[in-house]
Amino acid sequence: MSKIKLGFAGTLAVTSFLLAGCGVQKDAALPINYSSSDSLHSQALPATDWRKEVLYFALTDRFANGNTSNDNGNNNRAGDAKDLGNPMGWHGGDFAGLRQKIESGYFSNLGVTAIWISPVTLQVPAVMAQSGPNSGKYHAGYAAYWTEDFFQVEPHFGNLQDLKDLVNAAHAKGLRVVQDMVLNHAGYEAQLARQKPSWFYKGSCINDQKCSLDGLPDFDQDNSEVKQYLNDSVNYWVSQTGIDGIRMDTIKHVNDSYWPQFFAAGGPGDASKVWTVGEAFTFDPGYINKYLNLGSPSMFDFPLYGALRDSLGKRGSLDGVANVLANTSYSDSSRLTTFLDNHDVRRFMSEGIENGIPFNEQRERLDAALSLQFTVRGTPSVYYGTEIAMQGKGDPYNNPSGQTNREDMNFSAASTSSLVTRIKALSDARRANPALTNGAHKELWRPGGGANLYAFARTLSGEASIVTVVNGSDGTLDLGSLGGISVSGLLSSGSVTELTGRTNTLSVNSSGKLVGTVPARTVLIVKSGGTPPPANCNPTALSGQGSSTSATVNWTAPSGCTVTGYNVYSKGSGSPTYTRLTSTPLSSTATGYTASNLATGSYDFKVTTLTSDGKESAGVEVTGVQVGTPAGLTVHFKKPTAWGGANIHHWNASPTGAVTDSTWPGKTMTAETVGCGWYKYTLPGVSSTNLLFVDPSATTRKTADLSRAKEGWFDGTTNTWSDTQPACDPITTTTKVTFQVTASTTLGQNVFLVGDVTELKAWDTANALSMTPSGCSGSTCTWTSAPIELKSNAGIQFKFIKKSGSSVSWEGGSNRTYTVPATGTASYNGGSWR
Is the pLDDT of residue 666 over 50? Predict the structure, then answer.
């Protein structure tokens, strides 16, 4: 759930005003002409064993915008307008965008089989944040956990038919849909809380269930009317849309007595018709197991999340993971749903980076954590953006734009991310090996204060056993030197196959011990079979040289064995998987190979040997072979306002010799014509480099050491990279202006602002901008607008108006006029109503 600290007593008047001005009809929150016996409108896919599924959480508003016409919802309430600059506002993601990504094959190509979407219900009006980095901005219900009406669709997402189209499109692709739902509370100042006050608990907090969560109206599920109302709501969405599952928000805050009837046969959560995974934010396995025993088909595995975060995410011991997986508190741990991060916690990437771990290392740790997650018991779930190593420090209420855990999805980054192919490979491995989805867990090795190594097996009668080996350390581990991992009865002596295609040196010796090396921060997933690498049989002195469209690798034959041939493999530098270039092995006398018709770029090559018994060696690699001349690497930098200028200091550029390392304090960057404080610099002939940005007027002001292998924009204020140019108007700048007027109103009247420019609704009184009352004396208050972005230096005309229902009262006299200042922020004090 989205949790905020609103200083809520200070927002009640604001919220009441917003509701009074939004024109919502009385009793709109109550179901209209619906009965739990209504016929089914859409059909879910046939029941499945959810342990075999892979779940993907697409936060609807932040995922994909497929229909810009609903970006502003009904646009009749303050905070309804799409505002990409406000991390707490609406960003435009919708059902149409999800459907388009389904139909394009995005989810299928990622290997996921079920999509978890945000709650779909109509949300309460936005409220004004009173503190934090986004104070003064509207906090909207974009995450959709603040329901106004439990039977209506949130218009920012589309309509009911759009939702049905999404579900039908998913089912056509064999994908299941899980809809987030909230039965614990309504939204802030929801009309239902005023219409049915007896439905809500209002006493002091007794426990998690008898307590208002963050000031939200807390349903009393022991009330029979409330129970029926909530049951009807769930039945309505399941029957109308054909969803396959429910993600149940804040399950531990709902009265325990509600759940047995909910999950009972014929109940709203009857597992024979719809799967449910519950969210209980606790690290206590026994507490989570309570809800499995109350009937929930699945629960989120917070204990494993915490262990993965603290071990692989922060260079900690894997003993924590071993302890969680050995815990016997669960009645059936295979029913759990595992995750690495979500919308309520810091992203996995940021857990390490905020603790000083470099980006590239943390990305490897994310790969390892995903690999471990996909091979343990339970249903793996992936949070959107994990496939592009997205960072995020936490909730948008407490973090500025660009640093939250709910940033907009960047699909261009997904097209080049190695994590996309990794998740697909892991999903394919689960699908092809039943022991990974339904097998028992057997621990084989844990650190115990020694090497940070964890190994376990998944075993299932009649199926091949799978062994997973996790190296959480920053160096290669030699299993043989550690005594080997006993796999007798699990793996046969000899060769092993790595299920995701990773090159490895593992094998099982005659003593039934798994031996070989495991690279740093790597997970290997193996079963019996394959070809073991012969000892001392790799080529030596491997070198590579690129030209305009080709690359040649050369080597020396090994002296430790008789070679019958060679294979040559290549991949783009940074890609996870090699492709074999030699359709048939080269002869035993070959000492070189030329790969032709290559595109400009950096390549890695691997050469392996073949022996008379058909065995292939692990091979040796040469990396970073440059083909063609790079066009050059351009980097952009937005300097902090306090900096006097911007320099770039670079070193270790590739290819070697393309440029000379700069001398401190670097080279002067050029101010860009787009303005907004951006500077740029191009390194000719360079494909990648290490760099940092520095203030030439005060060289102690500098960024951390960075690296870049493609054009990018680095924001020195937020310390984040972007692969595309951030929005910045090269001609028109804007100034945020707050408007104020003192006016007397009658009961039911509110003051609004309207003017001659689009930002002031072009004299459209129906959509006039709302204002907030304060400092009232009797019926006279000071009314203040939210900050409005207006074009700098523009001359505008406007008036204040009073509205009560459809009645509009205009100020007297001529239009007010104002010239917007050139920069910064400004306020207009209009004095008294005219």
Answer: yes
